[in-house]
Amino acid sequence: MAEIEPRVALVTGGSRGIGRATVLRLARDGFDVSFCYQSNETAALELEKEVAETGVRVMHRKVDVRDIDLVRGLVAETESTLGPIDAVVTAAGITRDNPLLLMQDDDWHQVLDVNLDGVYNVCRSVVFTMMKRKRGVLVNLSSVAGVYGNATQSNYSASKAGIIGFSRALAKEVGPYGIRANVVAPGFIDTDMTSVLTSQVKEKALESVPLGRLGRADEVADLVSYLVSDRAAYVTGAVLQIDGGISL
Ligand code: NAD
User: Fold this and answer.
1) Which residues of the chain have pLDDT under 70?
2) What distance in angstroms lies between residue 169's CA and the mean position of ligand 1's atoms?
3) Atom number, ligand 1, closest to the C-alpha of residue 142
4) In terms of pTM, does the model score above 0.85?
5) Which of 25, 23, 51 is closest to 35 using CA atoms?
6) Strand locations in the chain, DSSP E?
7) pLDDT, tens digit, for every residue of 21-33?
8) Is 156 one of the catalytic residues?
9) How far is the CA of 1 from the centre of ligand 1 (A)?
């Protein structure tokens, strides 16, 4: 039987929510996985154990995606431990909601720093090796807020719209090297990020979802799994919404 080449994935924001579901899904797909997170070491260790049980190699590091030196270190350590990175999924993200009139300068900058600069830092750190190898796939997590805008989320919407422009530009730059860059734009997904919303806000949002429920992190991970696979070999520069129809 032909040997299956090991593939390596790097996932940011892997300790919980969509990132965590993606780590598990890619491990099931046979990827060796490196993931980073911001604060919850216990959750990261538990995930690492769960992933290791699937038989693939796994590592995690506490790395703030705002710090490009730390991100470069993560990429270098991942490549020396697991091998060259084939797939990158940037799921690290935060919200700091407020109407613009009440927006604190710091909340504006924090959201742009994590959500947009973080994506730049990661993609910038992996792209050279991918181009040299003429191989690689990038999946950046945006949001329907980045496509349509969302009231009280001018900072978040701007960061997520930025990810779309960034990824499309990148798709054009690196396509000739055989590298694909795509965006996943989820709607309302049931994770810690949305658990902080009041039940009133959730009910109101659900009124706009034709499928009548929140999405699940594993459903988003399934889409990521498709995008990083060869089944999506001709898909690049795409913004794939997974939103239960909220944007209709
Ligand atoms: P979450 O809050 O459950 O998890 C976010 C993850 O990002 C955590 O692992 C956290 O440790 C990590 N993180 C945050 N700041 C970081 C930093 N500075 N450095 C490194 N890691 C950091 O969020 P989620 O719901 O799983 O969302 C994942 C991605 O999907 C985010 O980019 C989010 O904007 C996007 N998204 C989520 C929804 C939703 O409804 N949940 C909708 C659209 C888009």
Assistant:
1) 1-6
2) 23
3) 44
4) yes
5) 23
6) 7-12, 31-37, 58-62, 87-90, 136-141, 179-186, 239-242
7) 999 999 999 999 9
8) yes
9) 40
